[in-house]
Structures are given as structure tokens and as C-alpha cells.
Amino acid sequence: MRLRSYRSLSFDVYGTLIDWESGIGSVLTSWAAEAGLDLDQEALLLAYAEHEAATEREQPTWLYPDVLAEAFRRTGERLGVSVGPAWAERLGASVPDWPAFGDSATALQALAERYDLIILSNVHRDGFAASNLHLRSRPTAIITAEDVGAYKPADPHFESLRSTLHDLQLAPHEHLHVAQSLFHDHVPAARHSLSSVWINRRHARPGWGATPEPAGTWSYQAEYPSMAAFVEAAERDDEV
């Protein structure tokens, strides 16, 4: 693929730029230790994943902290241990504490010199603003779940992206979506005929982690193990 043929990039944030599995997992493992559950972080994330996705489908207009709290409560019910209000609130309020991957901020700064950057995130506005203190990005546009009243993999994010591209006089065929989650991003990107690249942050680990197994058809034009590798590919392409 020729990365220089694109004029704009959109980014999933949590899982791609922000290490949401570490953020969620740190709360889940602390709770499990207190509850006496002998489960490691990967097992807890696997138990959690479907509950977050289900809550987002059922309550598309809820703010993300409320989704996190409810998904945590449902996870506890499945594991046979009640999640009290303090623990549910702790996870819901934890988004600002989730760390950025070590290459994210530098990668965004480099890519901003070549492309218009658009945020396409399953989070509320305040949540992204807090995470952006770690990322230090200056995107051309920001589209959140709060803005569209829905959560990916539903269509409203991608419908809003199309409208945003039109407003910015950017053509969809010159746009590339950059994301880790096949479930949340690459399935709907394919449905909307958008090119995408897979930032496979879990390339060294088996399973899907905090993301459900994808349901539906997906595609991507290239796969990279990190944002740093993606930037290196873009820089090499510029030199050709």
C-alpha cells in the first residue's frame, strides 16, 4: 500500500493509542485480589469484554464512565462476586489514569506533519480530553461516543466521519482508519468501504483481551505491531 496516497487518518484511541487493557486490568486485578478470586489479568479481561460491548449496545447514550461501571457489575455477577458501588465508581473514573503506549505521542506528532488527524473514539468528551494530556495531539476533528450517541461497532461514528471528511473537503478514498480492534473498528470500516490498517498491539499475546471476538467481515490494507512501526512505514513511503 502507498501511505503517501492518503491525506487524512482517523484513530481509535483506547487500545490503539491508550493502553486501556492495563487501565481496566489494574482495577479488575485489585478487585479480584480483594475478593479472593484466583484469576490473572488476561482471564479477567476476557470475562469483562462481552459485558462492556453488551452495555454499549443496550445503552448507547450512556456516558462511558457509566458503561464501565455497569460492565464491571455484570462481570462480577458472572464471576459470582458482587461489585460494590465504590469499585464500580473506581473503574468508571479511571479513564484519565490509563497510560498511553510509549510510542503514541511521538507517532501522532510525526503523522500530523503529513496528514489531517481525526479522533474516532468510544469515549466521552471529558475522557478523551484527559487522555489527550498523555497524547499531546492536536487533531483536526474529534468524534466521540458522546457526540454521536452510540458506540462502535455501530454505524454512527463512521457516518459522522463521512460527514466530517466532506466538511473538510477530504475524499473518503484518500482517508485511512488506524485501529487495534477488529471488533470495534475494522468490521465497521469494511462495512463503510474505508481503508484501514491494523495496529496489532496484542501481537505477542493470544486471545482478544478486553475486546470481543469480531463478528462480521473485516479487512485491512496492512498490519503493524505498533504505532512506531506504522510511522516508520509512512516515512519509508515518503522516501520512495
The Rg value, from CA coordinates, equals 18 Å
Helix segment tally: 10
Q: Can you tell me the CATH class of the largest domain?
A: Alpha Beta
Distance between the termini: 12 Å
Q: What composes the largest sheet?
A: 6 strands, parallel
Strand order of the largest sheet: 3-2-1-4-5-6
Count the beta strands.
Answer: 6
- Could you tell me the mean pLDDT? 96
Unreliable segments of 5+ consecutive residues? none
Count of folded domains: 2
What pattern of helices and strands is seen along the backbone? EHHHHHEHEHHEHEEH
CATH arch. level architecture of the largest domain: 3-Layer(aba) Sandwich
**Helix amount:** 40-55%
Return the structural class.
alpha/beta
Describe this structure in words.
By secondary structure, the protein is α/β, with parallel strands linked by helices. It folds into 2 domains: 3-19 and 99-239, Rossmann fold, CATH 3.40.50; 21-97, DNA polymerase, domain 1 (Orthogonal Bundle), CATH 1.10.150.750. The protein has helices at 20-35, 41-58, 64-79, 85-92, 104-111, 125-135, 145-148, 156-167, 182-191, 227-239; strands at 8-11, 116-121, 141-144, 175-179, 195-199, 222-224. Strands 3-2-1-4-5-6 form a 6-stranded parallel β-sheet. The radius of gyration is 18 Å and the shape is globular. The two termini are 12 Å apart. 44% of the residues are buried. The mean pLDDT is 96.
